[in-house]
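Hey, I'm writing a tutorial for new members on how sequence and structure tokens pair up, and I'd like a real worked example in the thread rather than a made-up one. If someone can provide the structure for the chain below, I'll link this post from the tutorial.
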Amino acid sequence: MARILLYTTPFCGHCRAAKTLLRRKALDFEEIDVSFGVDKRAEMIRRTMGLRTVPQIFIHGRHVGGYHELTALEREGRLEALLADAAEAIAEET
């Protein structure tokens, strides 16, 4: 299964919506709360090349953007393909 990582804060509506979408699809994800962790927020900003808003979503290390980008992938039917490609990459690594 593809590794999904979300940088979030507990007060963010888009973060909650992204997690709901992923749960609805029965996808596991790791969540990193950046609300009080200066180091984790800096990590997120570095990995996204300067983006400071949450959520920031990564699928198998690939930055896909925030909630709007995630829902666009889902709406366009491209999320499943991205997850399948990531799962294939994971299988090749092992």
